[in-house]
Amino acid sequence: MFPLSRFRVEDESMQPTLEPGDYVLVNRWAYRTRAPSPGDLVVVEDPEVPTRFLIKRVSETLGSREVRLMGDNEAVSRDSRTFGSVAIERIIGKVWLRLKR
Predict the structure, then answer these.
(1) How confident is residue 64, by pLDDT bands cut at 50, 70 and 90?
(2) What does pTM read for this prediction?
């Protein structure tokens, strides 16, 4: 598996950090040797729609197995306030670079 993947920002949940239409490069290997830290931007499998991906910020780590995720635009974000904590195994990788549209 190649360590970098590209994802497109689809919604407004990460504004003003990321805008709809932006792309992000994601390091899939970022968490092979360490756990996510609060503040990290990550791409995660949507817990409610497994064929979809979400870009969120890690707000809290819960032990070594779960994280809570939040969108920067809390008014429109569907995040851990909606679907609860997320298993670390669902994290695709850490956002490494933003590419503006």
Answers:
(1) confident
(2) 0.92
Residues listed for the chain: 101
Task: Give the phi and the psi of residue 33 in degrees, each rounded to 5.
Answer: -120, -5
d(C-alpha 61, C-alpha 35), whole Å: 8
Residue with structure tokens 């729609």? 49
The tens digit of pLDDT for each residue in 22-63 reads 999 999 999 999 999 999 999 999 999 989 999 999 999 998
What is the side-by-side order of every strand in the sheet holding 41-45?
Answer: 4-8, 23-27, 91-99, 41-45, 53-62, 66-70, 86-87
Report domain 4-99's class: mainly beta
Place of tokens 């780590």: 61
Instruction: Give the chain's count of helices (H) and strands (E).
Output: 1, 7
Query: Could you give the CA distance from residue 1 to residue 48 in angstroms, rounded to a whole number?
Result: 25
